[in-house]
């Protein structure tokens, strides 16, 4: 029994010993595996560092090469700078601009600027004349507007010249600080100033001619209106600006009708006939007249087309009266007179901006001045400028 117990204890010992040795062997294998893995990682990291070191060395060589090139360029630029400085010193000694010459150039610029301001004043006066002409010559507003547009273009050109002169003055101011100019640049500058001065003077002369021509066109209508007043006296009232004659429709026609009232013919004979004959029978006045239009106007009662037909019939009725009452001058009337219906295209408004229906119903007699040829000549003159 004692021997069996010893055998069991001995067996248990060796089993425990075997388990211990197996555990130690497993731990040893793990340690060896960890060492091997770390060795592999260290080798890979070392290889990467070697490659990076190789790239750094290559980049360093490239940078050294570029640095050598930069040093070479720096030497070349230094030599070029030295040559430039020597050339600058040589030119400085040769081409120093005197203060007297700069003062003369500045004085010339001031004179040019003063001429530009005078031209601006003339342009403003010219535009004022154009506005006055627009009020006087109502039938030719489109032609006068065209002239004003072209004159505005001319003003823009003059403004551009002033800007150029200002820029030139600034450049000269900078040159005063530097005090260095080449001889050929000074000559070119003086030549340019003389050319600009001549061009401005030419524009001033041309604008004065244009201004005189426009005033002449305006004066023709004023002259005709003045002669009308002398001939007609105070008994017949005409528009002081356009010279037009106006009759209220309620005096000549019944509401919605176009036949002359019995009493209307007497007034037309006393007023209209005298007005027309003054324009056409006076040789001097007729030489300025291009045509006379009898216009019929209505208010907004009714449709536009209805009023257009009514206004045309009324204008024609007035013209028929002239033909019938003065048969000796029918040939003259046929050359100068025309009738036109305006419907309610040209209404008259009261002080509050509302339509004045009674005043809008009217007959107007307007004359046109023979200035188309002069206007075309003036437009042609401006187009070439």
Query: Number of DSSP helices?
Result: 11
> What's the alpha carbon Rg, rounded to whole Å?
52 Å
User: Mean pLDDT score, rounded?
Assistant: 76
Helices and strands, in order, run as HHHHEHHHEHHEHEH
Count of individual beta strands: 4
When the domains are counted, the total is 3
What name goes with the CATH superfamily of the largest domain? Answer: OmpA-like domain
CATH class of the largest domain: Alpha Beta
Helix fraction by DSSP (H/I, runs of at least 4): over 70%
What is the chains' assembly state? single chain
What is the overall silhouette? elongated
Low-confidence segments, given as residue ranges, are none
Second CATH tier, the architecture of the largest domain: 2-Layer Sandwich
Give the strand order, joined by hyphens, for the main sheet: 1-4-2-3
Sheet-strand content, in percent, reads 5-15%
CATH topology title of the largest domain: 60s Ribosomal Protein L30, Chain: A
Distance between the termini: 147 Å
Largest sheet: 4 strands, mixed
* Structural class estimated from helices and strands: alpha+beta
